Every structure is written in structure tokens, then in C-alpha cells.
Amino acid sequence: MGWTMPELASRVASDLEDGWFVNLGIGLPTLVADYIPEGKEIIFHSENGLLGLGPKPAPGEEDPDLVNAGKEPITLVPGGSYFSQADSFAMIRGGHLDAAILGAFQVSQFGDLASWKLPNATLGRVGGAMDLTVGSKRVFLFMQHTTKKGEAKIVEECSYPLTAKNCVDRIYTNLAVIAVTEDGLVVTELAPNVTFEYVQEHTAAPLKLRLATVRG
Fold first, then answer.
1. Is 156 an annotated catalytic residue?
2. Which of 63, 126, 175, 201 suits 214 as a labelling partner, its CA being 20 to 30 A distant?
């Protein structure tokens, strides 16, 4: 039921506009680089100092000196570049990123994001997430709708340490696409074979249904 993660990556990629500069967060968001439609140019950014990330390298073609912020091997498209982390964060803080695609532990009905530390966890670091959520023009979340235990990740109020408040614009999960609006959380698209009632049952915050378009 719903989208697989590669299918969801393709769905997110379809919403990115030609010519955008987009940061890809650690983990699931990195899949998006593999599903950019032909003819569309998206310039991907990684906060460790890379611009122009391409698809993942083929097995055996990895370069150990060319990795993203999650230490995963990546490729660079023609014209791609790497530079200091100071320059990278100047891009973020200067408002030059059109969007950031991030993961999440929790997101609230108000667009508050918790993405860096689980309660009672001894490990956890903010990294560049606080800068990205404030400096990017748009923040999109790419995530499973629930935890592995089936607990809701979309909640009325975050109980985990916050990354930033009121920063999320849109949530993409395996079940639905949800917009964060002044009127609350609005489901604009349902994954195949998923009902609105099922999404609401697995969400710990009130949802509204306002389907935008029907996709093939």
C-alpha cells in the first residue's frame, strides 16, 4: 500500500522546478537525485561543500574523496564543484537555496520540525539542519509516515527536541503529500490504494482533504 521510497523520490523530484538549487538531507532525501526527469536541471547542494551532485555512482566506481554530508559516495554532474564548508554555509545562510529536502523524526501541525535527536538518546547532533530550515526558501520533508513501531510522526505538537519552528512547507510520505498551511495540514494527494481515512488514522494531528490534481 502506498508509494515505495524510490517511487516517493520520483514524486518529490517531479515537484522541483527547473533551475532550482536544492539541498539534499542525509538518508532518504538523497534518493531524489536519482529520479530527476529528463530535460530538467536541478542543482543539488550538500552542506559539506558540494554543488552539482549527480546520481549515486555505479558499484566499483565510488570515489572515497567524493562524499555527501552523510559520508555516502556521490557523483558530480559536469560543472559541479566542491569548496569549503564555510562557503557552503554562506550559501545556505544567504538565502540562495530554493529548497531543502530533509528527513524528520517528528513534524507538528504547525510545521515545527524535530530531526536531530530522539528523546533519551545519548547521541545526536544538529549538523546543518538548523541553518537549512531557516535559510532555505522552502522546506520539504521526505519520510515514512510512521515509525517502525507504527507510531505517528506527524503530531499536534512535537515532543522531541526541535530543529526549528514553523519551517516546513510540505510533507511527502509513503501515504500522502501534505501541505502545511495557515488552515492546518492539508492532504493534497493520496498514494495509490490509500484512503484519506487511513492517512488520518496514522496521523496524530487533524487533517483536511483538498486533492490538487489526479496523477497517472
1. no
2. 201
